[in-house]
């Protein structure tokens, strides 16, 4: 760690380092001479996760300056977890068995690798490839973003967006109307299929299929018949040249429990018109209510006395969506391709915002939401977004250190707790199948079971959530509220220890007796690694229609 000081006279730097919960993990002081000086400390740590450094001059005062969207007083960094001795390695038969994608770091290979991301979204919209006129794009391998040519990051191929020349509105539009010439649109999609098939063969030989997302948060004003006709044109065009096409939609803002903004509602509306004939899978965004922010957790409505409000909880929305999918076409894939958590409503970037507790709240809520999405039967979940940007305050996984209001393509970055929580999540649950939600849980306790591919170890993710502590009466998000839960981790009559991993990827050993471990659960999820997969058999409910990775 390098500290730059500009003391007017000899002084002492007093520094400390905190984790995401505010626990002091290191502190000290050192003397500095007057003038501009750089002092470097060498640090070692056995802990993984997010850390924030604070520093001041004991006589002259001062603090670390605001940089971009990162407030004054802190510099942040992360230490990635090494779980190789706790989570057995997994062998992947196919590339799409990986479970994590991300928006906001396209072409940033080092950051994607650090976070454990395996796929991003690549543009093949008509508006992107032929923005000005028809028949101006011919598929070629040279069109592929060179970032993808190493074959490490898989493509989800984006298809929404109609340029003005092809739109019945006479202007660019994104999923409000069908294109004016559906025959042309179908032929264009045939070219996209040719392009994707060649790319997969050349750069992704271990990938079984190409995956396409047709619409993106549609605000449809055209006829219902034209919506299905547009999907038919896409489906027929792609499948005519790409026998390995998986065509997916409808990618609405919310998973379920409404008709015009929810994927479940769109499936219900258009299924009777034959939409199921023209999709191979379902994509949705995972926003579980308008204004998804740290103070609005995904479990907020699970304990509501009004059943109509309970249906708004994220786990209930995911179950409703999975049930609707079964009625449209059984056992389809489900990919959640966007979910981000902002700071609290009304927040603004500034020198004193966000406080540490807001960052903790964001990380805990985002992590729990993605666990629910995977646990309720999505094969893939996408983190959103890479850096902070202006429109949705705080939604970035990283501070943008160059722009005070954030910027979409920022590369000078500093991590938030959310980034390290995601890095731990991917290292724990990538390479797993979803088993389902745990049965018989007490009120306000949440848990899901996952099993590593090839019948490997079972991993249980558990946490508690209490609305009265989120936030507390003082307006803070409690990191100390807890409850106990007895989890069966081995056969009756056995005793020993199980590995428990915290939200940042730190491992501890917890004893169990007679096959049962007594766990302390907080609002921060933990992962319990069960070497005996039989211990949890019959104790979970599988998501409807989920058929694995």
From TrEMBL:
Source organism of the structure: Paraburkholderia sediminicola
GO molecular function terms listed in the Swiss-Prot or TrEMBL record: hydrolase activity, hydrolyzing O-glycosyl compounds
Protein name (record): Uncharacterized protein
Matching InterPro entries: GH, Glycosyl_Hydrolase_39
Highest rank taxon of the organism: Bacteria
């Amino acid at each position: 760690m390098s500290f730059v000081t500009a003391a007017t006279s000899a002084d002492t730097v007093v520094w400390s380092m905190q984790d995401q919960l505010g626990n002091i993990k290191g502190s000290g002081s050192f003397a500095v001479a007057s003038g501009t000086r750089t002092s470097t400390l060498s640090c070692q740590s056995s802990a993984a996760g997010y850390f924030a450094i604070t520093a001041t001059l004991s006589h002259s005062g001062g603090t670390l300056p605001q940089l971009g969207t990162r407030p004054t007083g802190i510099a942040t960094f992360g230490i990635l977890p090494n779980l190789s001795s706790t989570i057995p390695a997994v062998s992947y038969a196919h590339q799409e068995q990986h479970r994590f994608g991300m928006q906001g770091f396209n072409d940033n290979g080092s950051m994607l690798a650090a976070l454990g991301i395996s796929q991003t979204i690549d543009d093949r919209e008509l508006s992107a490839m032929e923005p000005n006129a028809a028949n101006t794009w011919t598929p070629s391998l040279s069109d592929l973003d060179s970032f993808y040519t190493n074959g490490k990051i898989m493509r989800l191929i984006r298809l929404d967006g109609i340029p003005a020349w092809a739109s019945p509105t006479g202007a660019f539009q994104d999923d409000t109307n069908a294109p004016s010439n559906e025959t042309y649109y179908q032929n264009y999609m045939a070219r996209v299929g040719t392009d994707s098939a060649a790319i997969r063969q050349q750069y992704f030989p271990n990938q079984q299929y190409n995956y396409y997302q047709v619409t993106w948060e549609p605000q449809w004003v055209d006829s219902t018949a034209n919506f299905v006709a547009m999907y038919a044109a896409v489906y027929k065009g792609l499948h005519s040249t790409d026998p390995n096409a998986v065509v997916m939609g409808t990618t609405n803002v919310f998973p379920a429990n409404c008709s015009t903004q929810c994927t479940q509602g769109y499936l219900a509306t258009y299924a009777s018109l034959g939409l199921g004939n023209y999709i191979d899978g379902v994509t949705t965004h995972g926003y579980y209510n308008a204004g998804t922010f740290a103070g609005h957790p995904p479990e907020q409505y699970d304990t509501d006395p009004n059943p109509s409000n309970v249906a708004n909880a994220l786990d209930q929305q995911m179950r409703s969506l999975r049930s609707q999918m079964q009625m449209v076409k059984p056992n389809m894939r489900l990919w959640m391709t966007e979910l981000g958590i902002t700071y609290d409503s009304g927040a603004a970037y500034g020198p004193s915002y966000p406080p540490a507790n807001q960052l903790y709240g964001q990380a805990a809520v985002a992590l729990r939401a993605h666990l629910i999405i995977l646990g309720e039967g999505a094969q893939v979940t996408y983190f959103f977004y890479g850096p902070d940007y202006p429109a949705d305050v705080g939604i970035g996984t990283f501070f943008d250190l160059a722009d005070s209001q954030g910027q979409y393509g920022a590369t000078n970055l500093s991590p938030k707790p959310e980034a390290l929580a995601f890095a731990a999540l991917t290292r724990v649950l990538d390479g797993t199948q979803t088993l389902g939600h745990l049965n018989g849980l007490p009120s306000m306790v949440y848990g899901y079971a996952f099993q590593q591919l090839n019948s490997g170890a079972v991993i249980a993710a558990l946490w508690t959530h209490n609305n009265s502590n989120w936030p507390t009466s003082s307006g803070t998000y409690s990191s100390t509220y807890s409850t106990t839960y007895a989890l069966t981790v081995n056969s009756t009559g056995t005793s020993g220890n199980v590995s428990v991993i915290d939200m940042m990827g730190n491992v501890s050993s917890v004893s169990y007796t007679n096959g049962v471990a007594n766990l302390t659960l907080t609002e921060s999820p933990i992962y319990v690694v069960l070497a005996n997969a039989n211990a949890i058999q019959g104790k979970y409910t599988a998501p409807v229609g989920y058929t694995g990775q």
